[in-house]
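Most newcomers find our protein records easier to grasp once they have seen one. To make this concrete, we reproduce a full record directly below:

…
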Amino acid sequence: MLFHKMDPKALTVCASTVNKSFLELYLLAKLSSVIYADRDAGNIKNSQNLTTGHSPMLDPSVVYVMQRSFTDFDECATDVRQWNLDLRQLDCGAFSGNVLQFGVGNAHISEARFGRMLIQSGLPPAGLRTIAIPAVRDTRFVWRNQKITGEDILVFPPNAELDAVSTPEFHVFTCSFPADTLEQAAEDLQLGSLTEVLGPTEVFRCARTRVAAVRRCLQRACQAVRGGSHIPGETELSIVISFELPRLLLMAIANSSTVRRRPPGRKRDHALSRARDYIDQFADESIQVGDLCRVAEVSQRTLEYAFLERYGVTPKSFLVALRLNNVRRDLRRADPGQRIADIANRWGFWHMGQFAADYRKQFGELPSQTLERVLARCCAHN
């Protein structure tokens, strides 16, 4: 085939002299098979040959792989690499999560599955541009006040915080690249500057086939790492991460059928924001639903609709869930000999029997079991 015979430099020149659909066809239909076939035939001597004069390969000298299953969401938030995460569990039941992360050079790829409804906050990898893609089509969650579907691609603005509410079926890929890697990809595809491609938009509704192409690329890379068949930094995986993936992402975004801008603020959204700010500010006090209605300047019914729409629980249940999360966090930090009752009292739980039952319903274990597991882990590390 023609693609097999063409030098990568010639491909780039050809793409720049005709139109970008030529390079799109190459990337979407032939990139992986051609590169791998040429490599096996000895035509690719090293990864630099693929992109001479364009998008330099990411430095494979910095390599890590982290693959873990979690039964504790606080432990998950602590152990995840590169991200600064804070997780709070809203629904009831034992938590389960699976995270795969790997990096090549300054690029970081993550695949995460969480089995409970969570409030997710924090920061993505510092100094990089982060893009998220739902790992399955049939998905729904809220990200930065926008409802996300399986055909959306999410672009974190520079220095933007993670602000999401995920359902128990949450499954997502995230890709974090140096800005110059994406800039070069945009230039190679003749899309203009990265700023022109992304603009102020955070969520792009993309064609199903293009999102599917991105997913297949990420699934292939993650499966290779998960199965141990490739180590990040090897030529094949470096090509996928540094060359193929950024271009597939930008092509999907540039050809998105619908640009989804942030919806104008509604009364319900403003009320929810004021209520959350009040909860965060006075977390260690005994907050009542009436207090939230007063600061949000809405009726109890309006506030309930707002919480149910965003978090799937009423304001009262939300307050109880956060207090239980705070107890759990303090139990995980407790010193030997510290009493569970003292920690529970600190967060407004005075009836120990009811507290233990509520805690077990929320997290699938008794507070004493949380404490015992933490202490056992500390002893093991010592």
Observations:
- The CA atoms of residues 147 and 274 lie 20 Å apart.
- Residues 1-62 have pLDDT under 50 and may be disordered.
- Residues 267-381 form a domain with the Arc Repressor Mutant, subunit A fold (CATH 1.10.10.60).
